[in-house]
Amino acid sequence: MPLDLKVILPESRIAAMKQAGLWPDILLTDMLDKWVASQPDAIAIAGFNSMRRRRESLSFRQLDQFSRRIALGLVHYGVAPGDMVSFQLPNWWEFVALHLACVRIGAISNPVMPIFRERELSFMLDFAETKVVFVPREFRGFDHPAMMADLRRNLPALEHVFVLGGEGSQSFEENFLLRRHEDEMNAQAIFAARRMGPNDVNEMLYTSGTTGQPKGVMHTANTQFGSLQSLAPAIGLGHADTLLMGSPLAHQTGFLYGIMMPLYLGIKVVYQDIWDARIAAQMIQDERVTYTMASTPFLADLTDHPDVHKYDTSSLRLFMCGGAPIPRVLTERATRELDIKVLALWGMSENGALTVTRPDDPMEKVSNTDGKAIQGTEVRIVDELGRPAPVDTEGLLQARGCTQFVGYMKKPEMHGTDADGWFDTGDYARMDADGYIRITGRAKDILIRGGENVPVVEVEELLYRHPAIVDAAIVGMPDPRLGERGCAFVTLTPGSSLSFAEMASYLTDAKLARNYMPERLEVIAEMPRTASGKIQKFKLREIAKEFSV
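-> structure tokens emitted (549 positions)
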């Protein structure tokens, strides 16, 4: 029985988007079919697989062949239209092939970050009612199959776990690549019967939770392609480009612009599964990369690594940067040292990239704003009563347009969108006279570490369970590379003590993801509070401004 997703996609929105020419009514597999017909032997994907320790590449023809075989394999193992297929994979070609396979048979792709562990996955896979999950044998030294073996006992919907690089009945290679399902099944009939529509959900991606649990953002081919066909011309991307993607494909940045954008444009994408600026420079040289997209720390690393200049990176012309403000000094240094254009963007899982600077914008716009809206989208600033805010006045940021998601899975009450289609982003911003915005703060209680949202409430809840802790509050402290790092303020029970190492050990034992860990501990006598007893985090943030790791 298909999942009851609680999709929010009124016919009026579909009609308006089609009439405006903002939704192309195509699937990602249609684009792959196009390139297989016109340039079958061109390289679609290249990259270095750190588990197999080798460079790998696939042509468009090979990607098509493998994705179709995998699709039939999923059918063989009982995946039906509307079923959820989860994959916790690094930036490897199999990630792309799995998503294409799901599109072919009407299943829903659910990418999950490789850094997630038992605590996060026990909720995510259960809530999604995942039927099949794919994991690597190991990544960064972690044993993913062992973790899944422990998790399976409490995941009643999960029928199969397949392991890339695995053995026996769980081997991905044996079951999906070496077995020629196309010789056993009527592929043409199966794909025709299961073809999904451009307004059907094909991707469910979890946000970093801000209220204790993450939410499942749902997208369709039309909302995804709405973003691609608007962003590409805004920044001058075309068929002659080559893309380097070091951001995780399981993040919406990687998914939209590392998987879908290359197939939309018919260009080569180069995957880096573990970020290293020196290796990135090698790849730029060897693959003649022209464009990359990542969070601000990646730009700083590439600019400042002492070995980068040993390589010929002259092909690189654009670096699109998001997730944290770009310091002007970094923009200037990167422009000078790498001879590139740095572009700023702002977006979120719910909308993809919404605002960007353009290649011909002055440096002041790149360093001091997060760009202006791309075609087919709108942003506005409103006051607490919902009235438009004056120019250069801080207010709540709202957005609407062709890129907007179609609801949080099973949680329509959290949609946060009014009758006119304006979505409450949860951010504070201001807008200048030219329509460029600047994010100034967050209404949601999160901090952003290296472009990744850290779910503060979830971490605080774990700290509150520690027997020595009375109160806990986590705020961001400035960091020149990551933008923010987490600082945990705690008060303790009388006579207790707590060291940073003890806190880290406790959170590790609780299976908290590594990138959610606070990186400093401050034990204080009492929390600053309002008259009603709420902790005044703004005061803690002021204190944390003076801290570093």
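The mean pLDDT is 93.
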